[in-house]
Amino acid sequence: MPVPHIQVILGTTRPGRFSERVGDWLVDRLGQRDDLTVELLDLRDHPLPIYELDVAPARAGREYETPEVRRFGERLDQADGYVVVTGEYNHGYSSSLKNALDHVFPELHRKPITFAAYGQVGGARAVEQLRQVVVELEMAPLRHAVHILPSVLIAARQLDPFTIEAFAELDDRLAHATDDLVWWASALASARAEG
Known about the structure:
Order of helices and strands: EHEHHEHEHEEHH
CATH superfamily: Flavodoxin domain
Shape: globular
Number of strands: 6
Oligomer: single chain
Distance between the termini: 16 Å
Helix content: 40-55%
């Protein structure tokens, strides 16, 4: 069986977002592994309408209301697992990420997901909420995630020029979370292939 394909999803779209720096680090580190392939999926590249459908994607399947939603869904379909990069805003995650997740279901169904989060408490509250949401999508949220605390966050924001080595102290945590993600992605891909 081929190695799992992992998408790193930038879950924020606001100007000056920190998630790009985290995404660069993730793609670099995951790209050095030989047990997966990796690509970046940026929500800015997938502007979606506000979710206002009569029928939930869990029941509608792949009946997309716009070409933009179809393109987003087809892109998600290509992955075996996900790492979502999220900031924490007002004890939660971004509205752009919630809107994106609400538009899809079969593309994410029975796939693993973990998180790289940042904020006052390392984005823990945003991740806690996201875990509840992805259970409704029948995904497998993993226990291990990367939480970027203010000490690392502030130092990385102040770096000029920025370098991804600002996150080097989190490499072991990322490796542990990725080992778990690869195991689940492979196991669930096999199970999905069996029908």
